[in-house]
Request: fold
Amino acid sequence: METTWAEQLRTAGLRVTRPRLSVLGVLAEHPHVDADTIATAARTVHPSISPQAVYGVLKALVGSGIARRIEPAGGPALYELRVGDNHHHLVCRECGLIADVDCVVGQAPCLQPSDAAGFAVDEAEVVFWGLCAGCQVARRTHVHGTNSAIEEGVIA
Reply:
């Protein structure tokens, strides 16, 4: 049986509140989103939730291990619910699409620095950058004059 959000909050030592449930609902439907997007989406369910409340909820969720904060270079912090499995991210340079990718090593840390400088390394955050399938087709379309991404079989 799947654990409910309320049970996860209680297990983490957090109170079950409407703002927390609203934010969890948004994160479940939209992984890899920023706080402003979460606040906007949460207001559709909980109109009185403030941006400050959303930031507070996110801090509590990350601090308790229910959510994860990722910080891809050049963009805002993003949040997701996939935690505890040492996965990494693929980021499209063109459109910003983010996809999860399992770590080939498995356990953290999957990389070690050449000189740990006295640190006890327990995690390595890996972000792969490139072009998603849709942007690859769009780029080929622009360069080669192909009629559409539909012809390439990427967009149905």
